Amino acid sequence: MNEIQLERVDFEPGKSFKLFSPRLRNTFLWHYHPEFELVYVEADAGIRHVGSHISGYTQSDLVFMGSNLPHLNFDYRLRSDYHQIVIQLRKDFLGSAIAVSPEFAIINQLFKKAAYGIAFHGETKALVTEKLKALADLNSFEQLVELMKVLNTLAHSDEYTILNADDISLQFFLKDKIRMGAIYEYMDANYNRKPDVNVVAGKVNLTTAAFCRYFKRQTNITFTDFVNQYRIDIAKNFLMQNKNVTETCYAVGFESLSYFNKLFNKVVGENPSEFKKNRLI
Fold it and tell me: With respect to CATH, is domain 5-162 assigned 2.60.120.10?
């Protein structure tokens, strides 16, 4: 099933949050749920698709998402070993206290920003990662206390990126009759060949022009940009598995090494050789 799905989250009796480590790399789960969600994933490189935002992450990602914000599972099609920690919070996690207690004012602002999706980096990500990895060894009350510390750290941080410029309307995605999964499925099978916009448009029963308009509206990038982003994310995986730059270039479907180097630098911020050297130390 490739259309957007409502995920039904079950909580243990007497708990206001759910802590787990899903492994869904072979599953396309384009979904939403009323619960807030904090995701931490460690992997060579992966895809981050939250609302209309599509980008890649390298080595790790930490993202906080608000209620009913559509997103793809962060471990989709990961090509090497990985670890993931997910915390889902009841929509009324802090009840009415979050709106009326002055002590929660900054956390309330964090929850409001989460409607757009927030990716954290730098020292904030490092500090929170350490706390998240320790949660499994604590009892429920201790987990709750540490979770509040995590939220406080995130709320006070200035090391973050807002992923969507506008509040994402769930209805915008629910009304979408195109199955985004069909596009990802096509890309996963054809990234190393020559992905053809005409073919993928036909798969979702649109003319090429209509598909291009649709895709830009849904993701804020062109299909060509998506193809390049997808290929570069896979290239990062190959490089971190110690493949050489030339081998990687052709393995992900590029025909020109110079163009691959130029595009990789544009997307990642460093050339492939530098990227590999800096991460295989």
Answer: yes
pLDDT for 154-213, tens place per residue?
A: 999 999 999 998 766 677 777 676 678 899 999 999 999 999 999 999 999 999 999 999
Could you tell me the two tokens for 57? 């992450």
Fold classification of 177-279 (topology level): Arc Repressor Mutant, subunit A (1.10.10)
Please check whether the two domains, 5-162 and 177-279, share a CATH topology. Answer: no
The structural domains of the chain, with segments of one domain joined by +, span: 5-162, 177-279
At residue 47's C-alpha, the angle toward residues 43 and 51, to 5°, is 135
- Concatenated DSSP letters of 38-104: EEEEEEEEEEEEETTEEEEEEEEEEEEE-TT--EE-TTTT--S--EEEEEEE-TTTTTTHHHH-GGG
Q: Give φ, ψ of 112 to 5 degrees.
A: -70, -40
Calculate the CA 236 to chain-centre distance. Answer: 16
Residue 80 near residue 114 (C-beta atoms within 8 A)? no
- Residue 162's CB is within 10 A of a number of other CB atoms, namely 13
d(CA 267, CA 165): 20
Q: 46 with 78: CB under 8 angstroms?
A: yes
pTM for this model (two decimals): 0.93
Contacts of 236 (CB under 8 A, 6+ apart): 44, 45, 56, 58, 268, 275
26 dihedral zone (left: phi>0; alpha: psi -120 to 50; beta): alpha
Closest CA to 5 of 33, 38, 27, 24: 33
Q: Which residues contact 31 (CB under 8 A, 6 or more apart)?
A: 4, 5, 6, 7, 70, 71, 73
